[in-house]
Amino acid sequence: MHHKRIQFLVVFLLCLILAGCGTNQPQAVLPQEPDLPQVEQPEPQPEPEQIVEPEITPEPIPEPEPEPEPISIRITAAGDNLLHNTVSFACALPEGGYDFHPVYENIKKIIEGSDIAFINQEVMLTGEASAYPNLAAPTENADALIDAGFNVINLATNHTLDKGVSGLETCLETVHARPFDAVLGAFRTEEESTQLCILEKQGIRFGFLSYTYGLNGYRLPSDKQWKIALIDETKIQNDLAAIRPECDYLIVSMHWGNEYQTTESSYQNELAQLLCDGGADLIIGTHPHVLQPMKWLEREDGHKTLCAYSLGNFVSNQHKRATMLGGILEVELLFEEDGSLKEIASAGVIPTVTHYKKGHYTIYQLTEYTDELAAEHGMQGYETPFNMTYLAELSNKILGENAITWEGEHD
Ligand SMILES: [Zn+2]
Fold first, then answer.
1. So what's the pLDDT on residue 8?
2. Lowest-confidence segment of 8-12, 171-175, 309-313, 405-409 by average pLDDT
3. Residue 223 main-chain phi, psi, to 5 deg
4. What is the pLDDT of residue 47?
5. Is a pLDDT exceeding 80 seen at residue 148?
6. Which pLDDT value is given to residue 36?
7. Cα(371) to centroid of ligand 1, in Å?
8. Mean per-residue pLDDT over the chain, rounded
9. Considering Cα of 290, then 293, then 299, then 303, what sign does the dihedral take?
10. How far apart are the CA of 270 and the centre of ligand 1, in A?
11. Of 49, 255, 277, 383, which residue is most buried, by most CB within 10 angstroms?
């Protein structure tokens, strides 16, 4: 009996122990439970991430996005307004006076609307119609230039002193009495000759310099050397240094080069590089009476200068057929609001033809000229063949792909 009690106790105790183990198992599961809430904790974390989504509301921020639109500037430049007395006679009115509007009526559409429209006034406007070699033309020509849209007029040419200082004075009075925005290369007073020529268009500051190689043998009085800007490398470098910091875009008019040569001279190349090194952005070349190439020059630091070596004659009564082909330089630029150049949108030369026949002078864009018009041209009495084939080949030879066409689609 006693042994059976002991056996029972042992079995009972074993059962207790086993039961205890059993209870331990669920205890071991419990510690896992606290892990579960940990998994729940990271869940609220993605919530704040969702709060980031509402930050996407800055999407409507595109309101400030409209970045300031670049400022678009259009520059045009024409070559020698070479008013032989025959051109003036053709513009004489029966009742007296002159009307030069017919000369520019076909190309007005190209010039007008430019922010800057440059013309090289080869011949001084003194009020008389004077023959070569001492050229002069009626003052009414300035009215036609204004009406065509020109606003920058250059007076530094080899003909500036054809009628002496008094003739130049009359011309200066004439052009300053008209609404030109800038008169280049010749001055009324010594003080005026030292002032920087800066023209502001749409907030962009355009600086201008202008020089001529000479005055056809005439000389300025010793006390009036300042009256016309002559090419002098030291003076040019000083002028460049003075004006460059004061403008956003620098334009230099150069009356230079060899007459009737359709390529630029080494001297033009040297001067152009000097201007490029001094910070010029655009060089407008005139004088050779024929077109010369348009090229890009580059400074060591990468600064680039566009140089139209010669724009040829805009109008004339010359008798060499190559002098009938001229060009209007057209440059379209985009500027940032701070005045820095953002982009050169386009640059090229629009070839033009001086058309003349008895008593009538006018200028056409080459692409609007025809063999029919050429057949009537006064040139038929001088140099032939003079036709579209000749003109197109000459334009292509000199300008190549820099020849552009005006299509009236510009802003
Ligand atoms: Zn000239």
1. 52
2. 8-12
3. -90, 5
4. 52
5. yes
6. 45
7. 29
8. 90
9. positive
10. 19
11. 255
pLDDT score, position 19: 43
Read out DSSP for 53-85? Answer: HHHTTTTTTTTT-SPPPPEEEEEEEEEEE---H
CA distance 148 to 100: 10
The one-letter amino acid at 125? L
How far is Cα 135 from Cα 8, in angstroms, rounded to an integer?
147
d(C-alpha 127, C-alpha 129), whole Å: 7
- Ion ligand 1 neighbours, Cβ < 5 Å: 157-158, 287
Compute the distance from residue 286 Cα to the ligand 1 centre, in Å: 7
pTM: 0.84
Predicted pLDDT of residue 18: 43
What's the CA-to-centroid distance between 291 and ligand 1, angstroms?
13
Q: Rounded to the nearest whole angstrom, what is the distance from the C-alpha of residue 344 to the centroid of ligand 1?
A: 29
What pLDDT, on the 0 to 100 scale, is given for residue 408?
80
Distance 326 CA to ligand 1 centre (A): 14
263: CA distance to ligand 1 center in Å? Answer: 16
Per-residue exposure over 35-61, b if at least 16 CB sit within 10 Å of its own CB, e if not:
eeeeeeeeeeeeeeeeeeeeeeeeeee
CA of 207 to the centre of ligand 1 (A): 23
Q: Ligand 1 centre from 104 Cα, in Å?
A: 20
The CA 315 to ligand 1 mean position distance, Å, reads 13
What CA–CA distance (Å, rounded) separates 59 from 343? Answer: 30
pLDDT at 345 over 80: yes
5 CA → ligand 1 middle, Å:
142
